[in-house]
Amino acid sequence: MNLVLLAAFWAVSMMFVLTPGADWAYAISAGLRHRAVIPAVGGLLLGHLLATLIVAAGIAGLIAAIPFALTGLTLIGAAYLLWLGIGLLTNPPVPQSAAIAPDKGWRHWAVKGFGVSGLNPKVILLFLALLPQFTDVHAAWPVPAQLVGLGGIHILNCGIVYLVVGYGSKAVLRTRPEAAKAVGRISGAIMIGLALVLAIETLSLR
User: Per-residue pLDDT tens for 192-206?
Assistant: First the structure.
């Protein structure tokens, strides 16, 4: 693959990853729970991997061409973000010690993280619009393989940033329960806002 294209894609990908959104909000909420960061981030990354494979397989274009399929997927994703956001807003997480923190298990956090990114149709559409621009039809690798490789770079960027965000929120807010609650509520409000924007944009285009 062309190294210039790879470097350009890495910079663009990092710009998107560094923009706070639902993934950031979820990583922060996981950081305020005991041992939740790694499974939560792992779930987020699985969602991005799914989006990469969908785009590489060419299915995203088919979904985008079927209005009802895209509308349904968008509303499901919006409803999921709304549910998570309301939960954070009404019951914000507070840093707890290992002795008293209830451990819901890695699967709980991984599945919720997968839902945050995997049920977000804008992730798929972003990949559909972004990844092909950095492929080269004359390269030795076939285009689908290039798309998977680019998706892997994006997933690596996501993993690094989300781990820093998750563990950073835990370190900074560990001894500040009131600040942790405020950040949790802000994260919930961000999720609710994104859910409403998704739903309004989708319904207004029908």
Answer: 887 787 778 767 765
For residues 47 and 109, give the distance between their C-alpha atoms in angstroms, rounded to a whole number: 13
What confidence tens digit (pLDDT) does each residue in 20-67 have? 778 888 888 888 776 789 999 999 999 999 988 888 887 666 665 676
**What spatial distance separates the first Cα and last Cα of the chain, rounded to whole Å?**
40
Q: Where are the domains of the chain?
A: 3-204
Torsion of CA 128, 53, 162, 164, to 10 degrees: -110
Predicted TM-score (pTM) of the model is 0.74
CA 80 to CA 161: how far, in whole Å? 23
Count Cβ atoms below 10 Å from residue 72 Cβ, excluding itself: 14
* Alpha helix positions (H), the chain: 3-17, 22-31, 37-56, 59-65, 67-90, 106-118, 121-130, 143-173, 177-204
Question: CB atoms < 10 A from the CB of 205, how many?
Answer: 10
Q: Is-contact 1 149, C-beta < 8 A?
A: yes
Q: What is the tens place of the pLDDT at every residue in 74-104?
A: 677 678 778 878 887 887 766 554 433 445 6
What is the dihedral sign for C-alpha 27, 30, 34, 38?
negative
Whether residue 37 contacts residue 27, with contact meaning beta carbons closer than 8 Å, is answered with yes
Q: How far apart are the C-alpha atoms of 177 and 55, rounded to whole Å?
A: 42
